[in-house]
Design a protein that fits this description.
266 residues; mainly alpha; MetI-like fold; 73% helix; globular
Length: 266
C-alpha cells in the first residue's frame, strides 16, 4: 500500500513538473533583469512589463481580445442554452441529426480558413472584429450546445411542468427554472468559450488586416523579430495573456468544477 502511495506521489510530482515547469520558467524570465543567465535570478525586476505595457498597441490588442471573447460568450451561451433546451425537452424530426453538430469542431481550422475568409469578403465583414466574433461563435457553438443539452437533460422535468401549470411561459421556464438549476453548466460553458476565444489566433490573423484590429496573441508574436527575440518582453506578454483566463477560472472555480463533474458523471 505504501509503495502505491509513493508511486502516486512520484507520478503527481512528475506531471506537475511537466505542466508547471514551462509556466514557472516564463514567469522567471519575465521578472529577471536583462541578460540574467542564472536559473534563480539574484533580483527581480518589472522592466519587461513596463516595456510591454508602454507600447500603445498592446492596450489596444488587449481591448480587442476582451471584446471578441465577451461578445463570443454573449452569442454562444444564450443560443446554445435555447437550442440545448429544445434538444433535451422536445421531440422533432431533426433531433436524430443533433450529433452532427459535433462534426464542425473536428474540422481542421486551417483547412476551412480560405472559404471562411472568402465568405466574410462577400458579406462585407472582412477586416472587422465582427468577422472574428462570428467565426469564433460558429465553431464553439456546437460543443457548447451539446454540453448544455446534457446539463438540461439532467435537471428534473417535474419542476418545469409545475411551473407551466401555474401559467409560466416557455421563456419563463427557461429563465426561471432551467437556468438556475443548470447554472454550473452554463458557467462552465461560458468559461470554456471565453478561454477558447481569448486564445484563438488563427481566425483573427486570417480575417483582419488592419493593425488596430489585431488581438493579444498577435502582440505576443510581435516580440519575435528577424534579428533577435526579446525574451523578457515575450515572457511578460505571455504572463499578461494568461492572467484573465486564470482570474476568470479562480472566480468561477466552484461552479466550473461542479459543471464539469456533472458532465463527466453522466
Amino acid at each position: 500500500m505504501r509503495k502505491h502511495g509513493l508511486a502516486w506521489w512520484a507520478a503527481a510530482a512528475f506531471y506537475s513538473l511537466i505542466a508547471l515547469g514551462p509556466l514557472l520558467w516564463i514567469l522567471r524570465t519575465s521578472l529577471a533583469p536583462e541578460h540574467t543567465v542564472s536559473v534563480i535570478p539574484a533580483s527581480l525586476s518589472v522592466e519587461h512589463y513596463r516595456a510591454v505595457l508602454s507600447r500603445p498597441e498592446m492596450l489596444r490588442y488587449m481591448f480587442n481580445s476582451v471584446l471578441v471573447s465577451l461578445a463570443t460568450v454573449g452569442i454562444v451561451v444564450p443560443v446554445s442554452l435555447a437550442a440545448g433546451y429544445s434538444l433535451a425537452r422536445y421531440q422533432f424530426w431533426g433531433q436524430r441529426l443533433a450529433p452532427l453538430f459535433l462534426v464542425a469542431p473536428l474540422l481542421p481550422a486551417i483547412a476551412i480558413l480560405v472559404p471562411i475568409t472568402r465568405f466574410m469578403h462577400q458579406l462585407g465583414l472582412y477586416d472587422t472584429l465582427a468577422a472574428v466574433i462570428l467565426t469564433n461563435a460558429v465553431f464553439t457553438l456546437p460543443l457548447a450546445l451539446w454540453m448544455l443539452r446534457n446539463f438540461v437533460s439532467g435537471t428534473p422535468v417535474e419542476v418545469e411542468e409545475a411551473a407551466r401549470i401555474d401559467g409560466c411561459s416557455t421563456t419563463g421556464v427557461l429563465l426561471r427554472i432551467v437556468v438556475p438549476q443548470a447554472a454550473p453548466g452554463v458557467i462552465a460553458v461560458a468559461v470554456c468559450v471565453f478561454i477558447g476565444a481569448w486564445n484563438n489566433y488563427l481566425y483573427a490573423f486570417a480575417l483582419t488586416s488592419s493593425q488596430d484590429l489585431r488581438v493579444l496573441p498577435h502582440a505576443i508574436l510581435a516580440f519575435l523579430g528577424q534579428w533577435g527575440t526579446y525574451w523578457g518582453g515575450l515572457s511578460a506578454a505571455g504572463v499578461i495573456a494568461v492572467i484573465p483566463p486564470v482570474f476568470l477560472f479562480l472566480i468561477f472555480q466552484r461552479w466550473f468544477v461542479a459543471g464539469i463533474f456533472q458532465q463527466w458523471s453522466r
